[in-house]
């Protein structure tokens, strides 16, 4: 009787081990990388729409149309120019931009379109390597009168091509301008309007001394987004993103809990550690 009980326990243990092995294997199915046009490697967290469901992350799904990889942001189409798996960045360009100096983006897209719940970020995860900011803003402005201001380049010679489909601009003459770099309230003249804000990661030497062709070249080059948020998602899932630091007078100080600093020399950061390295911090 004891022998039969022992054999039954051994058999049960063997079955459990086999089931665990099968379960483990099912969660570690290898996915081959995909490719589309100029993008030779599309792998985790990215996936193509036609890839098996277990491959990649659905938040980072790309489509391959006419041998061109594209990504939809806010239902707007952007062509993928490059994916950097080392820096965790993807470079995109508005699908409407053509090789024409008067070809402009169709949709606004700036840092204000991205919040902490979005799968992409407009900044790098840390300041340790290169600039923290990934992109320069490019602002398109229109006015009912000419503006003589050095920060702006006139684009009216493009026959208001950007505004042709907008009925509100077709009835009256509008003078159109573009500016690279951050815009201040004082830069916007009376009766002028901001019509479009986009981004580029082109490394301008001097944003105050550029030509319209350079700006168009930067739009064709595209802008970068960071996808390190997928690392944050992993850390939060594994309960390893709970350390909060304050940044005061150039130094980090452990808070223990999040403290909101609002003065000019105080800011609060939430730092996510995963595998001993900093993956993320956010300024509150």
UniProtKB/TrEMBL annotation:
This is Protein kinase domain-containing protein. InterPro entries: WAK_GUB. It comes from Forsythia ovata. GO terms for cellular component: membrane. It is found in: Membrane. One of its GO terms (molecular function) is kinase activity. It comes from the Eukaryota. Keywords: Kinase, Signal, Transferase. The keyword Thylakoid does not apply. It is a single-pass membrane protein. Residues 31-94 form the Wall-associated receptor kinase galacturonan-binding domain. PANTHER family: LEAF RUST 10 DISEASE-RESISTANCE LOCUS RECEPTOR-LIKE PROTEIN KINASE-LIKE 2.7, OS01G0690200 PROTEIN. The keyword Transcription regulation does not apply. Residues 1-25 form the signal peptide.
